[in-house]
Amino acid sequence: MSDIDIQGSFRDPSGFLFRQDGILYRQVNAGYKEHYDALLGSGLYETLVRDGLLVSHGEAEIGLSRSEDAYKVIRPDHIRFISYPYEWCFSQLKHAALTTLEVQKRALEFGMVLKDASAYNIQFESGRPILIDTLSFEKYREGTPWVAYRQFCQHFLAPLALMARTDVRLGRLSQLFIDGAPLDLASRLLPLRTRLTPSLFLHVHVHARSQAYFAEKRVDVRKTGRKVSRLALRGLIDSLESAVRALKWNLPSTEWGDYYRDTNYSEAALRHKTETVAALLASVKPDTVWDLGGNLGLFSRIASDTGAETVSFDADPAAVEKNYLEAVRKKEQKILPLLLDLTNPSPDIGWQNRERESLIARGPAHTAMALALIHHLAISNNVPLGKIADFLKSVCRFLVIEFVPKSDSQVQRLLSTREDVFSDYTRQAFEAEFSQRFAIQECVQLKESQRVLYLMRKHPVAL
Amino acid sequence: MGLLGTPSVLLAYIDLGTGSYLLQLAVAALLGSLFAVKASWPKARAFFRRLFLRDRH
Prior knowledge:
The complex is a heterodimer.
Chain A: E1 3-5, E2 15-20, E3 23-29, H1 33-41, H2 44-50, E4 57-60, E5 70-76, H3 90-109, E6 112-114, E7 122-125, E8 128-131, E9 137-139, H4 149-165, H5 173-176, H6 183-189, H7 198-215, H8 230-246, H9 267-284, E10 288-292, H10 298-305, E11 309-314, H11 317-329, E12 335-339, E13 365-370, H12 374-380, H13 385-395, E14 396-403, H14 409-415, H15 427-435, E15 438-445, E16 452-458
Parallel strand pairs in A: 10-11, 10-13, 11-12, 13-14
Antiparallel strand pairs in A: 1-2, 2-3, 3-5, 4-5, 6-9, 7-8, 14-16, 15-16
Chain B: H1 7-10, H2 18-56
């Protein structure tokens, strides 16, 4: 028997997550009984689960509890891949924000409220954002303010405003600041003209000034005697929702935006590559696929069409945005586009470096694909072939990889502005390095192209 | 019982933040009023439209 506490769930005294025998459970503590019973008894849980807004759960044996103050042990439905806000594109964060506010509105209708609004409580499951923290609710008491107002602004509104109005790459701020973007920083980074947008002026700029003004002052807020009516609370939520809906990111045409049209493949070569990738995947029948450098998701969709849970990673925010919007438009359930810089993948962060897991800790995938990728890592980023093989070995059991030789026009383009210091970048050296970590099972020369596709299987770990 | 004396707020496990809390108190009533106007606007518009059309006829 193995049991592991899940480190991302320790802040809320209402309960915590743990894993036992590979199954994820959530302990509900006795102190939360009143609110848990209200969630289930009011019909809110049923409504939210029915509409795909809250993760479903079943009650498990109380004997599984980890402490004496347990009221219930529940078993939430499995989330297939845990992703984090700093890995989401603009529209993913926006949809996660709107989901949070929709849940809050529904909760109010049933006499409850969200007691937190952490972006980490939202995950993308079957293509849709869903709240995964069953213990995020508490009974609404007339007159009380929304306790999660500050958190919502820091986790959602400020990052979205920064991404839309300053630079989309500022979405990565949430990796630096575990409790969301500091509002004073957001206020300073946003253009002056955002002060003319009433919702941003109020919820970001004035909010930041208010935090700074009262930071050093001794104010006993219990003596204010003022209340926030239900209508006022509804108005606050409506204002935040309008602010989020109004934020739009206009996609730029980036280096990779027209990738598939700007490629050096002939029509026959692209068709052969597509067929070969499909055949190689069919031969290993993956249940999970990570497409590394997935761009707009052309090849990721070959994987997801086989039924594999596919994560399509790319470093370009515009590519991930397009890929995600395509998945939303087609209501695709098996593909999850995510932002990832392979030269600096998501690390373990948070308390004890254990709250949010690194990319590698969330693997391995059954199969990884590295198509038209290796020259970017080896030539543009100076990563030796052996180190590329080491990384790929750590994230998968099977590997579909494309070798792009130095004579390829795309590699020549990369070399056109720099000295060629890559004497080891050859097909022979590639096969030699990868053969030390993988068994090469298939090797297919693409028609009308100098590129080669490989299917490899990781060598078993020696005991 | 004072506003923050209610169990809901006392049990909050995240920090409301004094500045965030007071800002919410200051603006919530205004936002609530705007929301009430916004929510009733379609009904008001329909009322005036009916009134206008009736006058014309």
